[in-house]
Amino acid sequence: MATLTESDIEKLFSGAPQYFARSEGHYTGAPHPSVAFPWDEKLEIRDLTDHTQVEDKAWGSITAWPHITRDVNSDRSAAQRASEERHRAHFYPRCRERPNMLSMFGLEKGSVGYQAALELAVGDALQEEQWGFESVAARLPAVVEQRQRMLTSKDGLRHVDETIIMEQLIKNGQRYNGKHPRERRASNLLYNELFLHILHPPTKVLDHNDPYSLSVQIMALVKVLAAPNMWIDFSHVEWRIRLGQLLWGAPVEGGAEDGSSIKSEDSTDAIHEERYWLFLQILLACELLVRLDAITEGEELGMESIRPAEIRRFEKDANKSVKWSLIMARVWLENIEVVRTEATEQTSTEEKPSGWIATLKRMSLSRDHSSHGHRERSPVYAIKGKHIQRQVRGLAHFARRLRWPDSDFYVSKISDNCRALAEGIPLTTPLTSPNTRPDSRRSSYLSAQKTDDKPRRTRSRRKQVSAALHPAGWLSKSYVSGLLLPGEGLCHFLMATLLENDPEALSALGTAANLCGGFVYAGKSFWSTACIVGRVLAAGSGAVECMGWISSDIIPQGLGNGWVNVEVDETPEDARQVDKKARLWGKLAIEKESRVLGDVDHASVFPADFIIPFENIYRDGPPPTLAIELKALALWAPADSAPATPADGSQATPLPNVGRPPGVRTYAASVTFTVTDIDSGEAKEHTYALERDINFVTAHPCVPSQHVKIMKSPSSPTIQQVDLSGNGVPGKTASIFGHPLHKYYSYIALHLSELLAKQDASLESHLDSYSSSPHRPSLTPVASKAAKVLVIDCITGFQPQPQEHEIPLSPVISRSDSYASATLSAPFTPGLGNGTENGYGWGAGGGIFESASTKMHSESRRRQFGSDMEILARAFCAEKGWNALISRRRRGCLACAIREAGALGWKVIIRVD
User: Fold this and answer.
1) DSSP-assigned beta bridge partners for residue 417
2) Contact assessment for residue 666 and residue 691, using Cβ atoms and an 8 Å cutoff
3) Which residues lie in Polar residues bias regions (predicted)?
4) N or C: which end of the chain has fewer CB within 10 A?
5) pLDDT tens-digit readout, 147-169
6) Do 862 and 109 contact (CB within 8 A), yes or no?
7) How many CB atoms are located within 10 Å of the residue 804 CB?
């Protein structure tokens, strides 16, 4: 009964993930959730993740988090170019997308990671739109007033000619790719450029030691960019998507509306002025970012010194909108270049200048020149993508990964179409500066949608994104240019670009799309992971997930080619926990309810306080052997199949002003299974409605401890039942490798067959039966304060489903698959070293190392995982409204999954083989 020492505890929980939620500092919003291995130093353990990597450089902008992209399709020349890229210190604002898009693609198809699961409740999609379609009319007077005040003030923004804007953008692009300004006069040059052409100089000295310093310039730029009601706030999801529409959307002038059209009462002048302000915002953000990079690199090189007071002031004054403008500036400087050509009089008035995205022509210098018949040469500015070929390869990668119909043929066609888009006819749109507009009070080109007086229900965590697709539309231009801001928008742009450049698909599906729903095309179904149908079908064998989209061979009964929207309801518990009420704000509760030592102090930990949890031992004998087969996916149309409407009753968030696509209908979904008892031959049908918008989380991988024998104590009865030697000792259960679980936690394991037999019972009734479970140790108090967890056993006694395309695999598992995201080619044998350190068959660190031979099979293994049984388990939870962790045996142990459920505040774990 001796207590465990601190060294014993660290050894015992070596390789066990621990769950945290910590604030990153002042003015950074909700805490940041993270998973760490504080007692491990090996990189094979510390690098374990519950999500996949970004596999193409073309998709790298999906997140603002620093990350390494594994470019699957990279060639040698690309690698050589990458090695030549500069490695410089950069400024990273403490502001990123929520949820973390790296964590949105869990190792289990259709799931998310721990970070994303907690951040969904404080996600960017929940924020009200600053200039949304429903509020622009009300906010417009404030916007006009603020802009006029800023232009007339002597302590703010000058009136900047459009030529100056474009010339400064060219200079910023050159500086961004150039060397660090090592000479002091460079700071003076930047000062003169800024305060002679863009901003008014400060009215008082801000730094007596160096009035021309970079810090003075940074503070002045922050002040202007932080002005309210003036700039586009890219912290809102809608505006990150609409950036491309504002740049390349064309006003509707009596013609048919398409994907590049913008409806407006007075669109021509309004869109030109909004573009002027957008380019001015891009310029100011680039000016600020270039200076922040310079001062950051100077600090790194020992040439600059940043005072703590300046850092605190910046963090206070640079609000969320300013930091998102910086993120936008980074994407701009990395992916876009502005080029200038001198145009002749004829070129500037008649011919359409070259350029693949948009050509910005300067208007005549003054109206007096026009009235006297003088026409001067005007420079033509074009904005071009730097990495068109990279983006096209990324689109081809996306099509192949999703097994797009006839992908080998269509990939070449799609690539040709995208290259043609890059060389297509430019959109000639001169900027309209504020002084050229006769009426400053006209409405914005973004027209407000009318809303009814009905009270709104709770906001959904996911936006309903509709789009009007059109060949060579602004959606495709946004993707091909690489001007993509972090967040879910990239997933929408990928699918929209794929469809806009596949004429046959666009003809079969129509131009109206619901990018948060799904569609049937060429005998396959494709679903956004924002749709519950996609998240459930992803568990099937052969399903593929790539960048937020699921490809499946399962198609709805009786449904031909076309888009669908699926009607779901938010679970009551999730609806209550949003924004300030979100679980993420409970930092202490998250860490306390997932601690490896439960609720006790380090100094009073006994071996008898722990058990080895298991899910496949039953007091009344083994459960029946089941064979499960999915019979049908059915979509039925409620309310006469009304057009797509979000479940929260609000207006849809459209991309090109199409809030409710007429061709997209709303359905309710259900799946039907045949469950056969192999022993008795009895077969039953079960149908489950996919009516709750639940989430699935991949339980974080762990590495089994080699020191479980520390727990071998007469007062720990469950461990006495376990064969710790791995030699098959008679009278003891099979070897169970994993981490122990403190008696603070309460769980009950139910076989799936028992759950189906009691499918009308509530989750609470299942959990209340834990006191009679044989899984509880005798010393565990009945009145545990910890939340109880239901473990659904989907391992024991299931007839395996045949794999159609089995690939022989090496026992070495790749990093993206963590523990065992594969069907091994040979039976697993405990103690088989396979050249590893810990002697377990799956390799050190869960086999996160990978060789060239295993890397190429990474996604193939992930595709093979799944079965109709796993689809049934997810469908059951979707009908009940149970958020669930997916814990795969040999990837992670049950004890760590139970603790993660405590961190999330969830009560269900689906345990799969």
Assistant:
1) none
2) no
3) 429-449
4) N
5) 888 888 888 899 888 889 999 99
6) yes
7) 9
Instruction: Work out the pLDDT band at 457, boundaries 50, 70, 90.
Output: very low
Cβ–Cβ under 8 Å, residues 653 and 838: no
Tell which residue, 736, 673, 703, has the closest CA to residue 872: 673
**pTM score of the predicted model:** 0.83
Q: Is the pLDDT of residue 81 over 80?
A: no
878-905, pLDDT tens digit by residue? 999 999 999 998 899 999 999 999 999 9
Domain regions of the chain by residue span = 136-403+424-436, 803-865
Rg over alpha carbons for the chain, rounded to the nearest Å, is 30
The residue to which tokens 């660090």 are assigned? 180
pLDDT tens-digit readout, 755-793 = 999 888 888 888 887 554 444 433 344 445 667 899 999
| CA–CA distance, 675 with 686 (Å, rounded to integer) | 7
- Amino acid code (one letter) for 381: Y
Are 175 and 290 within 8 A, CB to CB?
A: yes
Token code pair at residue 570: 């938010």
Starting at the edge strand found earlier in the chain, the sheet holding 427-428 runs: 336-342, 379-385, 358-361, 427-428
Collapse the DSSP code of 610 into the 3-class scheme (helix H, G, I; strand E, B; otherwise coil) and give the result. Answer: strand
Q: How far apart are CA 570 and CA 591, in angstroms?
A: 26
Task: Encode 767-802: b = buried (16+ Cβ within 10 Å), e = exposed.
Answer: beebeeeebbbeebeeebebbbbbbbbbbbbbeebe
Q: Is 264 exposed, middle or buried (0-12, 13-18, 19+ CB in 10 A)?
A: buried
8 A C-beta contact, residue 597 and residue 742: yes
Backbone angles phi, psi at 676, to 5 degrees: -115, 130
Q: Are 865 and 747 in contact (CB under 8 A)?
A: no
Ramachandran quadrant class, 831 (left: phi over 0; alpha: psi -120 to 50; beta: rest): left
Q: Which of 509, 512, 530 is nearest to 464 (CA)?
A: 530
CA dist list (Å): 685 to 538, 674, 688, 792, 802 = 21, 5, 10, 20, 21
